[in-house]
Design brief:
The complex is a heterodimer of chains A (about 300) and B (about 260). With about 300 residues, chain A is an alpha/beta fold. Chain A is built from 10 helices and 14 strands. Chain A has a single domain, classed as Aldolase class I (TIM Barrel). The longest helix of chain A is centred in the C-terminal third of the chain and has 16 residues. Chain A is globular, with a radius of gyration of 18 Å. Chain A starts with a strand and ends in a 15-residue tail after the last helix. In chain B, α4 packs parallel to α5. Chain B starts with a strand and ends with a strand. Chain B is built from 6 helices and 16 strands. The chains are: A alpha/beta (about 300), B alpha/beta (about 260).
Chain lengths: ~300, ~260
C-alpha cells in the first residue's frame, strides 16, 4: 500500500481531507493514529477568523452542506499546532488568502513544519475574494500558484473547485504555473436547505458547500477529465466512504485520495477499513502496486 | 437526519431569576441524561443539555440561563413560539450505583436533574449536591425531592443550605458516605477540583464538559480537546474520570470560535 507522492512517502494512499477534524494537532494526530496515510489541516489564513455563526452544517440526502466560514486562529497561532504534530505521517497545510502576497506569506512561514502545502482556491462560501472566487478564474489561480511556488521549497498542491464550466482550463492553468499536484474536488454548489415550517434558510450563511457520497460522481468525473489533460499527479476527493469509492478515483486517474465527510458515517475507523479493503482487493486481483490501477478507466 | 426540527414551545417554566426551562412535545426514543440538543433560534445555534426527559408524556425540556444575546433572545420567547432542535447528541451518563453522588453547579444542574430522575427510577440511591450563588438561584428542588433523593443545597452566600462551594459540600458528603459513583456538571473549575478529589478517593466518576461547538456532529473539529482530539459532541460531553486525566486542557483552557485558546 506504500506510495510516494510528489516525493512524499505515505504508508497508504489515504489522506484526511481539509476541513474535517483538522483544526488542532490533537485531532490531526488522532487521524494519523487511526490509519490516515497523511493529514491535511483545516484551512488557515493570515489572520484569525471566527467563521460564520451557527448553523454552519446541516445534513442533506447523501451528505452535508456546510458554511463553517474558514474559521481558524491565524497562521501565528496555527503554527504552534503544526509544531505539535507527532510526525508519524506526512502533514499538508491547507492555506487560503485573498491575494498572492497573503498566500506566499503564509506558505513560506510554515513550510518547515509540513511536508506540502495545499492551496484552497476553491471554498465555495468563502468571504469576498477568497476561495472559489480565485479557483473559478484560471488567471487568478495562476498568479497565486506562481507566487507560492516562488516562496516555498515544498510541494504545492492546488485544490480545485468543481463549480466552473471547465475545470480542465483551471487545471491546465495551475499546472502551467508550477503546481506539483492537483486536489479534485472541493465542495459542490454551494447549496442550501430551507426549513419547512418557517421558510428560513437553515445555514446562517444561507449557502454552503456540499460534500459527502452524493457528490462522488461529480468528483470522479472531474478527476477523469483532468487526468486526460495534465501530466502532474492528482489527489481524488469527494464522497469517499469505502474502498470501492477509492478505486473509482484511482481508475479515473488519481494517485491518492482524501477522505472527510464520511467520517460522520464510519468514524475515524474509516481509514483502517478502507486500507484493509484496498489491500484485499489488490491481492484478489493480483495487483502488486497501486500505480498499476491508476487511470485504467481511460484504457477502456 | 441532522436537520433542525422546528417545534413549538409547549410550556415555559421560570426556574429562577436567570434560568428558564422550555418544554417541547417530543417523541422520546434515544434521549438519555447527559445528551444535548443543538438549539436554533433562527439567528444562531448553540448546544444545550436536556434537563427533562419524559417518556410517558413524550416531552423533553431544555433549561437555559440568560447570559448573552442568544440566551436572552430565547428567554423572550413564549409558549407557541418556535425553536429549532436537533439531536439528541453526545455520550450521556452511564447510570450505575447503587449509591450515587450527583453534583451540579448553577445551570450545570440541568443534566444532573435529568440524571437523578432516571437513576432513581432505575432504583439507585442518589444524593444530590445542588450549588448556586444564592437561594433564589437554586434549581429543581421540588423535582429532586419528588424522586426521593437526598437534596444537599449549597449557596455562596449561605442564604440556603451549606455556605460555601459545591466542591466543599461534596467533600463533606464523600467523607460521610461511601459512594459507588459520582456524576457532576457545572463550572469547569468546580469539576476540576472534584475530579482531583474522586481520583484520590478512587471512586468512578463522570463529568459533563462544555465547549464551543459548530457542527455538533463530529465533523468540524471545533470542540476537539487536547491532547486526544476527542470531540465533546461525540466522545463527550460526558467523560469518565480516567479519560479526563488524558484531557490535558481540562480545567486549564478552552478554544473560541476561531480556535484561539482562552484560560478557564
Amino acid at each position: 500500500m506504500e506510495i510516494e507522492f510528489c516525493g512524499i512517502k505515505m504508508e497508504n494512499p489515504t489522506m484526511l481531507a481539509a476541513g474535517i477534524l483538522g483544526s488542532t494537532a490533537s485531532s490531526l494526530n488522532w487521524a494519523a493514529k487511526s490509519g490516515a496515510g497523511a493529514v491535511v489541516t483545516k484551512s488557515f489564513g493570515l489572520n484569525s477568523n471566527k467563521g460564520y455563526s451557527n448553523p454552519t452544517t446541516v445534513e442533506v440526502t447523501g451528505g452535508v452542506i456546510n458554511a463553517i466560514g474558514l474559521s481558524n486562529p491565524g497562521v501565528e497561532n496555527f503554527e504552534k499546532e503544526l509544531k505539535k504534530l507527532d510526525g508519524t505521517v506526512p502533514a499538508v497545510a491547507s492555506i487560503y488568502g485573498a491575494n498572492p502576497d497573503e498566500f506566499s506569506k503564509i506558505a513560506s512561514q510554515i513550510q518547515e513544519d509540513v511536508d506540502a502545502v495545499e492551496l484552497n482556491v476553491s471554498c465555495p462560501h468563502a468571504m469576498s475574494g477568497c476561495g472559489a472566487a480565485i479557483g473559478q478564474d484560471p488567471l487568478l489561480t495562476s498568479t497565486i500558484v506562481s507566487a507560492v511556488k516562488e516562496s516555498v521549497n515544498i510541494p504545492v498542491f492546488v485544490k480545485l473547485t468543481p463549480n466552473v464550466t471547465d475545470i480542465v482550463e483551471v487545471a491546465l492553468s495551475a499546472e502551467d504555473a508550477g503546481a506539483d499536484a492537483l486536489t479534485l474536488i472541493n465542495s459542490l454548489g454551494p447549496g442550501m436547505r430551507i426549513d419547512i415550517k418557517t421558510g428560513k434558510p437553515i445555514l446562517s450563511n444561507r449557502f454552503g458547500g456540499m460534500s459527502g457520497p452524493a457528490i462522488k460522481p461529480v468528483a470522479v468525473r472531474c478527476v477523469y477529465d483532468v487526468f486526460d489533460a495534465v501530466d502532474i499527479p492528482l489527489i481524488g476527493v469527494g464522497g469517499i466512504r469505502n474502498y470501492e469509492d477509492v478505486l473509482e478515483f484511482i481508475y479515473a486517474g488519481a494517485n491518492c485520495v482524501q477522505i472527510g465527510t464520511s467520517i460522520m458515517y464510519e468514524g475515524m475507523e474509516i481509514f483502517g477499513k478502507v486500507v484493509e479493503g484496498l489491500d484485499g482487493f489488490m491481492k484478489e486481483m493480483g495487483y502488486k502496486k497501486l500505480e498499476e490501477m491508476v487511470g485504467i478507466a481511460h484504457k477502456q | 437526519m441532522h436537520v433542525p426540527k422546528t417545534v413549538k414551545i409547549k410550556r415555559v417554566i421560570k426556574e429562577s431569576p436567570t434560568v428558564k426551562t422550555f418544554i417541547f412535545d417530543w417523541e422520546v426514543k434515544e434521549e438519555v441524561p447527559g445528551n444535548f440538543m443543538m438549539v436554533w433560534n433562527f439567528n444562531d445555534e448553540k448546544p444545550m443539555s436536556i434537563s427533562l426527559i419524559d417518556q410517558v408524556k413524550n416531552e423533553i425540556g431544555i433549561s437555559i440561563r440568560g447570559v448573552g444575546e442568544f440566551t436572552n433572545q430565547v428567554h423572550n420567547l413564549e409558549e407557541g413560539d418556535m425553536l429549532g432542535l436537533r439531536g439528541p447528541y453526545g455520550r450521556g451518563f452511564h447510570i450505575a450505583g447503587p449509591k450515587i453522588l450527583a453534583v451540579g453547579g448553577g445551570v450545570g444542574m440541568a443534566p444532573i436533574v435529568a440524571f437523578t430522575e432516571e437513576a432513581s427510577k432505575m432504583g439507585f440511591s442518589v444524593d444530590v449536591v445542588s450549588a448556586a450563588g444564592t437561594a433564589n438561584e437554586l434549581l429543581y428542588g421540588e423535582r429532586i425531592q419528588n424522586t426521593g433523593s437526598k437534596l444537599l443545597t449549597c449557596t455562596d452566600d449561605g442564604s440556603h443550605g451549606f455556605c460555601g462551594f459545591g466542591t466543599e459540600l461534596a467533600d463533606i458528603a464523600l467523607s460521610e458516605t461511601k459512594y459507588d459513583m459520582v456524576v457532576a456538571c457545572g463550572p469547569e473549575v468546580m469539576m476540576k477540583k472534584l475530579h482531583d478529589t474522586v481520583e484520590k478517593l478512587d471512586i468512578p466518576a463522570q463529568f459533563s464538559l462544555e465547549r464551543y461547538m459548530k457542527c455538533g456532529i463530529g465533523l468540524c473539529g471545533q470542540c476537539c480537546v487536547d491532547d486526544m482530539g476527542w470531540r465533546v459532541c461525540v466522545e463527550g460531553p460526558v467523560f469518565w474520570s480516567d479519560e479526563l486525566k488524558m484531557i490535558s486542557e481540562f480545567g486549564k483552557y478552552k478554544r473560541d470560535a476561531s480556535g484561539i485558546k482562552h484560560s478557564i
